[in-house]
Amino acid sequence: MSVNRYLPAARYVAQAIPGILAQLGLKPFISRFVLTETQQGNAWLFVVLEVSPLKHLEDYAASNVLHYLSTALHGLPVVISSSYGLRYAVLLGSPNFSMKRDLTDTEKPMEGQRATLPGAPA
């Protein structure tokens, strides 16, 4: 499977997340983005946060923050992982996930493997 298939959606999310966090009054201390696909065909974009500058980690993990992120990303599911650091996982595509969102054709999710995103904030 080609990593290029999910790059437009990953770029869209990567560019949107810092502004969404700022709207919530949270500093977007993002260290990197990782795009990957599971063996089951789920495409995930991991938004890895820098933990050291974050004062209140619980603010970033609050359920209302996850809900706001998902809503702002046109309904994409967003979950958080706090093992070995803090990161958001955004489901870009899945065989079991309907992609009925308001994205342009160039922003529709693409299928891929692990990749770095050119042009995304590092």
Give the arrangement of secondary structure elements.
Blueprint: H1 7-23, E1 30-37, E2 43-49, H2 57-61, H3 63-72, E3 78-81, E4 86-93
Antiparallel strand pairs: 1-2, 2-4, 3-4
Would you give an account of this structure?
The structure is a single chain. By secondary structure, this protein is of the alpha+beta class. The chain has one domain (3-97). 26% of the residues lie in helices and 22% in strands. It has helices spanning 7-23, 57-61, 63-72, and strands at 30-37, 43-49, 78-81, 86-93. It has a 4-stranded antiparallel β-sheet with strand order 1-2-4-3. The chain starts with 6 loop residues before the first helix and ends in a 29-residue tail after the last strand. Residues 100-122 have low confidence and may be disordered.
Choose one word for the global shape: globular
The domain count comes to 1
Largest sheet: 4 strands, antiparallel
Question: What's the count of strands?
Answer: 4
Q: Give the terminus-to-terminus CA distance.
A: 25 Å
As a percent range, the share of strand residues is 15-25%
Strand order of the largest sheet: 1-2-4-3
Helix and strand content put the structural class at alpha+beta
Count, helices: 3
Radius of gyration: 14 Å
The arrangement of helices and strands along the chain is HEEHHEE
Mean pLDDT across every amino acid position: 79
Provide the low-confidence segments as ranges.
Answer: 100-122
Question: Which bin fits the share of residues in helices?
Answer: 25-40%
